[in-house]
Amino acid sequence: MRMILLGPPGSGKGTQAQKLIEKFQVPQVSTGDLFRSAAKNQTALGKKAKEYMDRGALVPDQVVIGMVEERMKQPDCKKGFILDGFPRTIPQAQALDKMLAGLGMNVDAVVEVDVPDQEVVRRISGRRTCRNCSAMYHIEFNKPKAAGKCDKCGSELYQRDDDKEEVIKSRLKVYHDQTAPLVEFYSKKNLVKKVDGIGSIDEIFGKVIGALGAK
Ligand code: ADP
Ligand code: ADP
Ligand code: ZN
After folding, report:
1. Dihedral pair phi/psi, residue 197, rounded to 5°
2. pTM value?
3. Please, what are the domains in the chain?
4. Active-site residue 160, yes or no?
């Protein structure tokens, strides 16, 4: 299982990835999580990435590609992976093709999660993220059992700096300008499975599994 989850910010990619990794027993590779963890650890990469993230811009391609290349070389990615938030530009997709070819691999499927902008705004503005394990919640649609605490690890939930109203608009524009063209890029390779991202988390999971032709 080597798949890409494609969709606007807040469409539920990370939430679905969490369920997919359990089902398929492959790692989730979330470039956003990798950058946030680097920023938390105050590494040079993390500090640089945060400048872009906080204003809703994309981190430069070379930086992202180098980081993903390192991650894909880890032994756990041999059995497969779920890419969440990468690629986000055509040059990143081309670099991914090249790096996978070098490892004797290819992408099996690209699941496009289709959610309209106004719904995405509702989802992002209510998102809360675990400081420790990155699990995602929503103050209305996916509440933690105890307010402000992660169900999985008990750590504090917080609102990401880039999940504030002012930044969401820029992120959506970036998605439509730079990431949406990937649908056509992967359609030409016959890899795209489009899934309606409206409905409960479990309903959407069922649709994703169906689209992948798994049971
Ligand atoms: P992405 O990884 O695409 O940015 P997330 O998985 O973090 O998206 O989801 C964004 C927000 O929407 C989170 O707060 C999450 O709990 C919530 N969410 C995810 N799936 C659904 C859904 N099907 N219905 C309502 N809210 C959802
Ligand atoms: P979302 O959950 O909203 O889809 P992510 O956690 O995937 O957001 O990404 C958060 C931010 O991290 C992005 O707005 C961008 O600044 C940076 N980022 C993550 N992945 C990439 C990527 N593939 N290319 C460039 N920037 C990225
Ligand atoms: Zn947690």
Report:
1. -90, 10
2. 0.96
3. 2-26+79-127+172-212 (3.40.50.300)
4. yes
